[in-house]
């Protein structure tokens, strides 16, 4: 059940201090988490995906989804001009309609943070991928330097990737300590930890990675880099939403969730919003606690928004390409 304000006081994170004291204790805790019923998780996700909303509720959902978008470009061919155009779009997604809300953030490589910041100032968050994105394979010195440089350039949020090889080999303490160190390097910037769930192989691993990152102090847990398939899926996001719900119930600490990669249609976005409401609860239905990592999703949301307002469906060339 969703946690409410009337929930009894939780023990807090101090109750979990001994969990991270050693590799053995961390392994015992993570492998002692309840197993995920794969059939049940997929069936529930499929059921939630059949819900539909109409008219006024749909209009509100579309605007809410727009405010949750981390508008993203993470290509080797990114240029300052392309990134500057994307940043302007983040501020005014539909220049013809001043009532259209801005997105939550612009997500870029660290060397482009300054370009985005010049355009958006403090009106939209700037997120930077770091820690040897997307592989996560680099020394800690490189990962921390990557993080500090992005923060120094003005990043409000850091999206780090875990070392999946270390996690899959059972070196949980190594992954935990890396997250702790990166979180410290973030300073006042928020940290999102990317699992690359397509490489974690099982829902049980997704649950373990979620708890590991939350115990280490992340602000958000994120499904994917968008570079590996499958990326975000409804069942994986369901498992992560259950994890943040249970973590808040146990500790009193609320953590955000960000599915990323493969979410391209307004219909899909609304499915995720329904799932957030049903699984974690309405407290997560804000950009503070839920995001979409996407590049092409925004145009689809804008097209559906225009159709609701005008009764006419605009083609994809009506809006600027991302």
From TrEMBL:
GO molecular function: deoxyribose-phosphate aldolase activity
Entry EC number(s): 4.1.2.4
Reaction catalysed by this enzyme: 2-deoxy-D-ribose 5-phosphate = D-glyceraldehyde 3-phosphate + acetaldehyde
Keywords in alphabetical order: Lyase, Schiff base
Pathway the protein acts in: Carbohydrate degradation; 2-deoxy-D-ribose 1-phosphate degradation; D-glyceraldehyde 3-phosphate and acetaldehyde from 2-deoxy-alpha-D-ribose 1-phosphate: step 2/2
Gene Ontology, cellular component aspect: cytoplasm
One record GO biological process: carbohydrate catabolic process
Superkingdom of source: Bacteria
InterPro entries: Aldolase_TIM, DeoC, DeoC/FbaB/LacD_aldolase
SMART domains linked: DeoC
Keyword check for Hydrolase: no
Gene3D superfamilies named in the record: Aldolase class I
Entry similarity comment: Belongs to the DeoC/FbaB aldolase family. DeoC type 2 subfamily.
PANTHER family: DEOXYRIBOSE-PHOSPHATE ALDOLASE (PTHR10889:SF3)
Protein name as catalogued: Deoxyribose-phosphate aldolase
Lineage of producing organism: Bacteria, Bacillati, Actinomycetota, Actinomycetes, Propionibacteriales
Gene: deoC
């Amino acid at each position: 059940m969703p946690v409410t304000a009337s929930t009894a006081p939780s023990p807090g994170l101090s109750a979990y201090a001994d969990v991270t004291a050693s590799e053995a204790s961390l392994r015992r805790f993570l492998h002692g988490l309840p197993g995920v019923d794969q059939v049940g998780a997929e069936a529930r996700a499929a059921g939630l995906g059949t819900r539909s909303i109409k008219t006024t509720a749909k209009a509100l959902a579309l605007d809410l989804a727009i405010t949750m978008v981390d508008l993203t470009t993470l290509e080797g061919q990114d240029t300052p001009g392309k990134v500057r155009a994307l940043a302007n779009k983040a501020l005014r997604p539909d220049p013809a309609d001043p009532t259209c809300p801005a997105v939550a953030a612009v997500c870029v490589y660290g060397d482009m943070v300054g370009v985005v910041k010049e355009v958006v100032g403090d009106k939209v968050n700037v997120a930077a991928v770091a820690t040897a994105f997307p592989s996560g394979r680099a020394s800690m010195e490189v990962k921390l330097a990557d993080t500090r440089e992005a923060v120094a350039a003005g990043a409000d949020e850091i999206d780090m990737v875990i070392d999946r090889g270390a996690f899959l080999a059972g070196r949980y303490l190594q992954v935990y300590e890396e997250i702790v160190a990166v979180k410290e390097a973030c300073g006042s910037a928020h940290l999102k930890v990317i699992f690359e769930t397509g490489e974690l192989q099982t829902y049980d691993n997704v649950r373990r990675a979620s708890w590991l990152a939350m115990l280490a102090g992340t602000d958000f847990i994120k499904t994917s880099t968008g570079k590996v398939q499958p990326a975000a899926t409804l069942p994986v996001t369901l498992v992560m939403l259950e994890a943040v719900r249970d973590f808040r119930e146990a500790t009193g600490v609320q953590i955000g969730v960000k599915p990323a990669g493969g979410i391209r249609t307004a219909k899909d976005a609304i499915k995720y919003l329904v799932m957030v409401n049903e699984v974690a609860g309405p407290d997560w239905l804000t950009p503070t606690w839920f995001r979409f990592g996407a590049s092409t999703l925004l145009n689809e949301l804008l097209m559906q928004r225009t159709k609701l307002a005008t009764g006419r469906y605009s083609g994809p060339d009506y809006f600027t390409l991302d």
